[in-house]
Design a protein that fits this description.
Layout lengths: L9 E7 L6 H11 L3 E7 L6 H11 L4 E5 L6 H14 L4 E4 L11 H10 L4 E5 L6 E3 L3 H18 L11 E4 H6 L11 H12 L4 E5 L1 E3 L10 H25 L4
Parallel strand pairs: 1-2, 1-4, 2-3, 5-8, 6-9
Antiparallel strand pairs: 4-7, 5-7
Helix pairs in contact: 1-2, 7-8
């Protein structure tokens, strides 16, 4: 795991697994988005040369691109956590997370950063479900599945944010630590709504900026049935635990 010799202010964490077709252009976009940004790539044993391409970009942008090579597939959540740990260790005050497949456009990074800095939000979400946001190149089945999942999360966990399952975010470092986001033991995208729930329970100031989520053009999706089932199990456990606490706290007749 690499550690930068110099502290940095802003960092964006990008998990990768076989993203050679996307990562060079993505890193160029991140570097252009804000001169203060450092990119932390967390690679899970890509076999297509992703890590080598990141190393080439490290030479192009000295000191601003950092690579964690984990050697094998260990999961989305722990990749984000490892990247966040490195960012915190190096003094980052705001830490972003995004996907590597251009579903999250690096041109929107400045909007997330600006809302966090200028309006002092604890967490800013790149949102598909507020005015100005949306999706592109999605079929009706994908829209129904994603929108339905997001609505279910919002309803069962009573969350106010419109996009609770999106992974394009800007965190204040204090909220990452206070919410124990680094201690969660999940594999996949359940990490996204669990952390949303924890932030909401702490009364964190959460804001959203619109994004257009574009389906990937290159490479393969990392979503699997196992990850979906984990998310479903975790969601209903959270809901049942909350319902149980609610009924136990109700005044008895």
């Amino acid at each position: 795991m690499e550690e930068s010799a110099n502290a940095f202010e802003l960092a964006v964490v990008v998990p990768t697994l076989n993203e050679a077709e996307n990562i060079p252009a993505l890193l160029d976009g991140i570097m252009a988005a804000d001169a203060r940004l450092h990119a932390i790539i967390v690679d899970d044993g890509s076999r297509d040369g992703t890590a080598l391409l990141v190393q080439e970009k490290q030479r192009q942008y000295p000191g601003r691109i950092h690579l964690i090579e984990r050697g094998r597939k260990m999961g989305y959540a722990s990749a984000v956590q490892d990247g966040m740990r490195l960012a915190i260790k190096n003094g980052a005050q705001r830490i972003l997370q995004m996907d590597a497949d251009f579903s999250h456009n690096p041109e929107r990074l400045p909007a997330l950063i600006a809302k966090s800095e200028e309006e002092d939000y604890d967490l800013v979400i790149g949102s598909r479900y507020i005015p100005g946001g949306g999706t592109e190149n999605w079929g009706i089945d994908r829209k129904i599945l994603s929108g339905g999942a997001n609505l279910m999360v919002r309803t069962l966990l009573n969350l106010k944010a419109r996009d609770c399952t999106g992974g394009f975010r800007c965190w204040k470092r204090e909220l990452i630590l206070q919410s124990d986001a680094l201690e969660l033991k999940v594999e996949g995208y359940a990490f996204l709504f669990i952390t949303m729930d924890r932030c909401a329970r702490r009364n964190a100031k959460i804001g959203e900026v619109p994004i257009i989520f574009v389906d990937r053009q290159y490479g393969k999706s990392k979503m699997s049935r196992r990850i979906i089932m984990e998310a479903v199990r975790v969601l209903f456990r959270l809901w049942m635990a909350r319902a149980s606490r609610f009924h136990s706290q109700r005044p008895k007749p």
